[in-house]
Amino acid sequence: MNNMTIGQYIPGQSWLHKLDPRVKMLSLILLLVSIFLIPIQGSRIDLIILGSYFIGTMFLVVSSGIPLLKVLQGLRPILFLLMFTVLIQILLIQPTQRVPLSDTYTFYVSLTSITAIILWIVFYQVTKKWIKFKVLYFLLSVIVVFALQYALPFGSFFQYDVTLYEETVFRGLFIFFSIVIIIMLTSLLTFTTMTTDINDGLEGILFPLKWIKVPVDVLTMMVSLTLRYIPTLLIETDKIMKAQASRGVDFKEASLKDKITQVISLLIPVFVISFKRAEDLANAMEVRGYVIGQKRTKIDVLKIKTSDYLAFFGVISIVSFTIYLVFFS
Amino acid sequence: MGIQFKEVTFRYKGFKTEYQALEFINLEIASKGEIIGICGHTGSGKSTLVQHMNGLLQADQGTVSVFDIVLPSKKKVKLNTLRRRVGLVFQFPEYQLFEESILKDVMFGPKNLKMKQEDIERISKEALSSVGIDATLYDQSPFRISGGQMRRVAIAGVLAMQPDILILDEPTRGLDPVGQKDLMEMLYQIHQETQMTMLIISHDMDVLGQYATRMLVMKEGKKIFDGSKDALFSRDDFLDMNLDYPSSLKVLKHLHQEISIPFKMLYTIPEVIAYLKEFSHE
Amino acid sequence: MINVHNVTFSYNGQDEAIKNVSFSIKKGSFISIVGHNGSGKSTLAKLLVGLLKPSTGTIEIDGHTLNEDNLVDIRKKVGIVFQNPDNQFVGVTVRHDIAFGLENQQVSADEMEQKVEYYADLVGMKALLKKEPHQLSGGQKQRVAIASALAMEQDVIIFDEATSMLDPKGVKEIMTIIHKIHQTYHKTIIMITHDLRLAAYADHMLVMKDGTLIKEGQPKDIYQDDSVLSSTQLLLPFELELLKHATQLNMDSSIVEALWAYNLKK
Q1: What angle do the packed helices A256-287 and A216-245 form, to 10 degrees?
Q2: For an engineered disulfide with B54, which of A56, B86, C57, C156 has Cβ 3.0 to 4.6 Å away?
Q3: Which fold is adopted by the domain C2-225?
């Protein structure tokens, strides 16, 4: 635990690492907005625009020096949902223009196919711990499930036809890739920017709010203190869990009523430690001259460089061009 | 019986690092009678070692036998059966207090172990009295007493589980000198009454010198010494163990160097005074 | 440098925690304040840095009477290192923490960078500037706290049980640095502790009991005064206790002298 660092920052010397965090964050927002502006109608032009964004993102990944697999890790939690959405798009939605891309295939939900699917799912669950590329294995399984429905019509009690239509396939691919791009761009931000810089960048971007009396600097200090204490709290929580386990706390063997007490036995100590900490910290900060709302300098000063101007100009151009293509042609 | 370690090896797997926390530890601890001092530099594996004794951690290689239970085990083991026999008091144990009243907090352990209802309250009260907390405080909130008292309540919480072996990780850390003395005397008295084996992890060589009957020294995950106090402090390579001598031995060494009083392994004030009297013509 | 006149203080609605205490501390001296838990030593520390306001009496620092209006100025003169290494570490990294006080003083970024490096080096933490607090030992965190106080260039530094939570190695690290900043940098040191071994390093000692200052003087005089120590629940370290018994039992002068020599050579 002692060697974990806050946030997902991976050190590096790429130009992406060196960009001003404010530029990176504003660029991310602008790029995300412009991706959302591209309509999901399934026309070829829109797919080409998206394709260009994808290539651009890949270029950024390569130049950042962050391994591709790491950037794609952000997809893991939503992979299932994504696959599901894409499949619904391709298989179930009836397009307005029926331009078939493939022949019509018949899939059977039959005794044999269901038995085979169940056997496959069991096989998948048992073998998946030995497979290294879990994501690919999952995709493979999805394909197998459908292949089985195609290949085993015996004892069928329900069948459905699937034709791949140009429009739905494009839409499916579109949704898939736009989400992949969004996740990759956001991951790139967190991998190439230190958490303290993200916090400073946020303060920089939000400073106009100060004019309407929003205490941006106090909020930033709160975020900074939270970041500082997360690892410490995790270590302390671990210690308390062990101490209570030594007093017989055993989640698996406890009744519901006991479970509640056991959870309380973890929460209360953490709260007590945190309140004491808040009091001590307030004293320490006050003695070191901290006054809420008073102007302070910072040891990390964000300076805009030429590369930042260029990068931002590039982003503005891309976004403007996208808007032009989408709305005016 | 008691605790046995056979070639226990354990690798600590952290977020970004891994290191060998324990290497080929062999150890036998009887369930009655001993006060064992465990010392070594910070990070030498002392805490990791004791967490294997109540099943919080399990060895990667080798086995740990705690009374009849052997870990790691292929069968499912209810770890609470271990924890009822080996009590572990962590550093700054006052942080584990949470209940509305002192008595309720001490009853938490026995309740979790599913001890008999009729016994739980009685045993908890006995535990509280053995640590010097009297009945007027039973319904008091554990957060409204002094730090030293909180620590005693926390220790009572583990004693109420009636362990055969009690492990204490730095029990005196953070207490003032009188608090330290009182706590150690209290623990010693409990030891004398119940003959419960106690393992005490400490950096305070004076405390260990005074109370321990056996010493275990850890260094970089290995057990480098297991034996008597006298044997430990006579070793030539003692200073390589990152340890300090007890104050009594330092003074006696000085007296030997300056005025040639023969050096003798003594650990308490009364012992040293009695000894020095022999050389003093009043 | 510091003058405390007839100060009394009580926490809201409770008994007096400090009862009519008066003393003076000369610039550049090393003072220890000892007493049992609850004797008022930490309350006194908080009064000296203006975290608490006396109910009656005055505190004068460098000629200025401490009051609500000049707190900012007083805090430029008096710094404090508290007991819990984790609860005073504000910054996300060592570097940010040492800079915290300077940021509050609106020092420029370049000057800050220099000062942070200089003072980190002074306490031996220069190589660890980018480390986060959970990666550091207790002793290292306290060293950072000292560097923060030094960076603010305060003349007086109070150590409120700053070593109580540390292991022996950590205690040694901190005591070495305290010595250094007293001897080399001529800071006024006020060390609050219940460890009489550490308190003996001071030139002058104040003994607190139940909110009252019951004695002040040189450590070696106080340690020989039985009436004082027995009433304060403070324990003499082994070697001093031995010396006391040997003296009381009228042991051979050679033994007593050798024990004195041992005690003084620290």
Answers
A1: 140
A2: B86
A3: Rossmann fold (3.40.50)
